[in-house]
Amino acid sequence: MIRRPPTVVCYICGHEYGTKSISIHEPQCLKKWHNENNLLPKELRRPEPKKPEVRTITAKGFYDLDALNEAAWTSVQSQLVPCNIYGRTFLPERLIVHQRSCKPKAANSQ
Fold this sequence. Notes:
By secondary structure, this protein is mainly alpha-helical.
């Protein structure tokens, strides 16, 4: 059985990265997040995502990747904004795109 190398979920964007590249990715991702957040209308701007603190160490002295990834995923989910018509959630910059085409369903006329 082939084992995948361990990955870590980015707490900002939710993508998976290798344990070595996550430390390179996160500062760049946070910078991109700030740039995109500053372009949003004021009502859609969000506070900076905070890196989850997971201090669970396994018996071998490593961080518990499952706990770390779960906390990161929860952080990403907390950044989502609901559509004001249907309630489906989006990242703030994607909500703007969604709202251009989102229309309430017309009531069936009988």
